[in-house]
Amino acid sequence: MSVDHLQKTDLHTRIPEASADNPHHARRWWILAVLGVAQLMIVLDATVVNIALPTAQTDLAFSDSARQWIVTAYALAFGSLLLIGGRIADVIGRKWVFVIGLAGFAIASAVGGAAVDVGMLIGARAVQGAFAALLAPAILSLLTTTFTDPRERAKAFGVFGAIAGTGASVGLLLGGILTEYANWRWTLFVNLFLVGIALTGGIKLLSHSKAAHRAKLDITGTVVVTAGLFALVYGFSHAETDGWANGITIGMLVAAGVLLTAFVFVQQRVHNPLLPLRIVLDRNRGGSYLAMFASAAGMFAVFLFLTYYLQASQGYSAVQTGVAFLPMTGVLVVVAGIASSALIPRVSARLLIPTGMAAATVAMYLLTQIGLDTSYASHILPSMLLLGAGLGLVFAPGFSLATLGVEASDSGVASAAVNTVQQVGGSVGTALLNTIAATAGATYATTHAAGATSAAAGKLLQANAAVHSYTVAFWWATAIFAVGAVLSAIVLRSGVPQYDESAETVVL
Questions:
Q1: Which partner for 349 in 96, 247, 379, 397 could form a disulfide, CB atoms 3.0-4.6 Å apart?
Q2: How big is the CA angle at 407 (ends 403 and 408), to the nearest 5 degrees?
Q3: Statement to judge: residues 164 and 232 lie in one domain
Q4: pLDDT at res. 381
Q5: Strand order of the sheet with strand 8-9?
Q6: 3-state secondary structure (DSSP) of residue 325
Q7: Domain identity same for 385 and 248
């Protein structure tokens, strides 16, 4: 049936079957709160441990290379297992995958918090990532299938987008507070309280549901894509510590390219594909994936290098650094709320998302102007406010579009896809910008070394070299956001998506 023959309604109109067919409808806002707590835990866990690493390193006496693996182990397991986690949620049932994911994440957090050596801590972080790969797509899939009314869906995804965007900065603040006033182990133990809330609410509020037809899992596709994503994330992580010319880095990235290309080939030919290509090839979903990838890659430049700058160059404590990010968090929440309630139902995502990316581009440009004596109020705060506004305009419609129009039986894997591009984007951005910044800092120190004729001059040189490395990273982040703005404007469709009254699918 063509679009012209479909009776359409705008985003303010309720789909008639939404209440009758949806067992979650009556308690949907409580479910949103539960899913929000679980999502917050996953997102903040990417940064809450980072601030605690120096203290943990002193306590457990491990090397700098081992410290890197505490971060990498989580990213590797999370990023490489997300797609299979999403399909498991579709096949087994979202409620119980959600519950299992929470329980496993809690156990891994408890083991990590009680770690007696670095091997135990790294292992716990890897298990955390594996259960997060189950949990994250189940959360977004449950949100997608719970909120089917267009207007309420926009509000729900606005809240969800705000949580996803602010979790990293909340993690920095919480990690600083727990490390400074309690113990580094509490950056892991705190998950037990969050799991307790989410697990109680999930068991009480959620109904069991799964795909109507229990298709077999695509074993070939699962093995190929898991290996490909592992190689990709590992390759970029290895580049961060050993450089782009390193043989292992090159080998892993080449293997990733081959395996992910093979995965696309396999998905075109198997009967029950792990990731049906129709999900990715839709222009609106593809555009949202591009925006999420670019936003994650660029956003990590702020969390990484601005954290370095505030602590190393400006002398901020861990808690002060976390507080410095709060204005961005507040603006992101407000803008995402406004976007979800007032803009998404009326304004094309083709306008909203590129506008948000453009605002983030300007924010990154402002950060390229920092120096050793830069004032927080005059330079950093304006850029943080602008970045928060830009990300709010990206995340609210981006998460919604990423799963809009997907059949319920594919909602888990579609949710996993958007989480995957975010995770890979963050890994790519962190490794790429870290390597570029390190090279820029070393080059600056070498070319200006002749002027450092005293100990004081040498110290000043190193400080200036560090700031130079940060500004170079911010220039690259500026380019990433700018390219993301252009590409999303090209790929996304014009107009607000329309709905068929006689079905729960979206006319795209």
A1: 397
A2: 90
A3: no
A4: 95
A5: 8-9, 498-500, 506-507
A6: coil
A7: no
Q: Please list, in sequence order, all residues whose beta carbon lies within 8 angstroms of the beta carbon of residue 502, skipping any fewer than 6 positions away.
A: 6, 7
Contact 459, 258 (CB under 8 A): no
Residues 89 and 230 in one domain: no
Q: Are residues 69 and 86 in the same domain?
A: yes
Q: What is the pLDDT of residue 10?
A: 37
Residue 407 confidence (pLDDT): 76
- Could you list the residue range(s) of the whole structural domain that residue 259 is in? 218-273
360 and 451 belong to one structural domain: yes
> For residues 146 and 98, is the Cβ–Cβ distance under 8 A?
no
d(CA 5, CA 218) in angstroms, rounded, equals 36
**Ranges in the chain, pLDDT < 50:** 1-18, 20, 499-508
Q: Are residues 297 and 410 in the same domain?
A: yes
Calpha distance 36→462 (Å, rounded): 43
Say yes or no: 151 and 262 in one domain: no
Query: Model-level pTM?
Result: 0.81
Domain boundary among 227, 244, 273: 273
pLDDT score for 47: 77
Q: Residue 180's CB: how many other CB atoms inside 10 A? A: 17
Same domain? For 255 and 344 the reply is no
**pLDDT score, position 367:** 94
CB burial of residue 459 (10 Å; 0-12, 13-18, 19+): exposed
